[in-house]
Structure prediction request, 146 residues.
Amino acid sequence: MKLYYYFLYRIYMFYKDTLKEKYFISFSVVTVSTVVISIGLYTIYLYLDFIEIVPMFSNKFYVIPIMLSLGVFNFYFFIKPMKFLELNFKKDTKGGILVILFLLFITLTYVLVANKNRLKINKEISFKIEIEHVKTTPTNQTTFHF
Prediction:
């Protein structure tokens, strides 16, 4: 939990110091952290679909309500209380590098799992096309032997 609070702290300080944001810091922290968490959870979901534990969503619009409810939960339980500011975290280079490495890890994992899943789906589609092709070709062709 402390790692997540540090992640929120670094996002908060980025918007406060670097971009001189004053009014929408909480909204920015909610947005960035919710997107990162959503990508992580969606990566896990894609992996579970790849190994065929859970089925794929029939409609991609299921992701939007999940992200919105995750954002509301994130705001009311983690960001609105501002507990991450009370933990006396320090901005240091090591922590910044760890946050960047975490973001790179999440992104690369998502891309790799999505590509593996896409290859699996393409194989399934090409297999179905081959089956349909076999079904539509005539099988009782007469051949003449001379």
The chain has a mean pLDDT of 84.
